[in-house]
């Protein structure tokens, strides 16, 4: 039921949030886990750590960091692919009081330089393979660089060397943290609108999200069985990979099989060998599994719950995934970096295909009409605004941008268009809806849709399409869309064929890059 301000709440009761820091939460959970249970396995090499080994190692590394004179609140940038060492260093850093700013390890020198300067990083964690980019990006603030490799290299300290520490300088139990104000993570927004911005995620933001993930309706638990395993391949520099997978699974005691990146053959082998009870997907991988004939040979019956996020799937795509793979436990969620991660999640036992689930505990939603500024009712489309303890503190050193994104009374403006139905299920609409329909066309490999300026309509949708077969025509696509969607959703902005859709590794379409293509095309036509 909508309240007087037009908002709706979660169907689930508010939970009592603990006034606890992330390192405190981590240490408490580690004390409860079976020390002999496997915590992490390298998917490629099968090297592993038990929870007991992991606890011992991260405390030694944390002690070494504190012993080197690192100060609470200093920032360390993580520029590394997924690995067991990433997990170790992350746990070590937060228990040493450091703030972690993860960075896309595919970033250019320019992009990394920008982030290092913007977040005032004092330290960097990387691997030997990425040292050329790191060294080209350094500034005078950087005090030391740590690497995940076995041995130190040319003044870059291996975390295995740090792990030789006696552990006596471990500060995890003595940190003085203001959970409401102190940031624990500073990820960077995707940069789809202007330059990327540092997102200040506080300890309270993060622990609230983690408490929500433990709720049973979202397949959560504070203590898992001995055989509960997952396969993880989404990047840890993204909120989905870092908070939902690495940290959440660590707190819940789930064994994690870590892939540095998604490789279909390795993924299939891991499914068959480790029989995970849960995995997390993004739409590009969902589409790959639909189209890859090898996926149809894999027995996925071990899976009890699959979360899917980063961008929405249409009902058609979701139903096709179910019919092709025989996997029926996929549940979508919706969120953004600025909301720590998720504001809606699909429940294990109650879900509507094509939706992003319902509001998580302690979160409210209202839908705002973009023309009138008034709130919308059931089934009415508008901009999604959310409020709750998982809304970020703000953009780092950007008060103006923060005010533009968060209202004075705490509502986070997402910029995404959607609606809720009578049962509280939340749906995201165009351009994701158009993209999802395009991706069901048998001759389309990938697609991205953006709004382009139009004097009469303001903005109209335009599609960028990657062909699966060469004989695909624009007329075929327009006819396909006309058969499936209302007139106002048709591609009145046109269709361009390109070689690749620019995406973040999380799966989100880089719409700014597509808009830049359109701008360049317009300028060239005027010459």
Task: Tell me what you see in this structure.
This protein is of the alpha/beta class and 527 residues long. Among the domains are: 22-36 and 46-176, 3-Layer(aba) Sandwich (Rossmann fold); 432-526, ANL, C-terminal domain (GMP Synthetase, Chain A, domain 3). Helices cover 30% and strands 21% of the residues. It is built from 15 helices and 25 strands. The protein has helices spanning 22-32, 51-67, 84-95, 109-118, 131-135, 159-162, 203-213, 239-252, 264-274, 283-291, 315-325, 399-405, 432-438, 474-484, 511-526, and strands spanning 8-9, 38-42, 48-50, 75-79, 99-102, 123-126, 144-147, 157-158, 183-185, 199-202, 229-232, 255-258, 278-281, 305-308, 330-335, 342-345, 358-359, 364-368, 382-387, 394-395, 412-420, 426-428, 444-454, 458-467, 495-497. The strands form five sheets. Strands 3-2-12-11-13-14-15-16-17 form a nine-stranded mixed sheet, sandwiched between helices. A five-stranded antiparallel sheet has the order 1-18-19-21-22, with no helix packed on it. It has a five-stranded parallel sheet with strand order 5-4-6-7-8. Helix 14 links the parallel strand 24 (458-467) and strand 25 (495-497). Helix 2 (51-67) packs across helix 3. The mean pLDDT is 91. Residues 433-508 form the AMP-binding enzyme C-terminal domain. This is DgyrCDS6865. It holds the Pfam family AMP-binding. InterPro entries: AMP-bd_C, AMP-bd_C_sf, AMP-binding_CS, AMP-dep_synth/lig_dom.
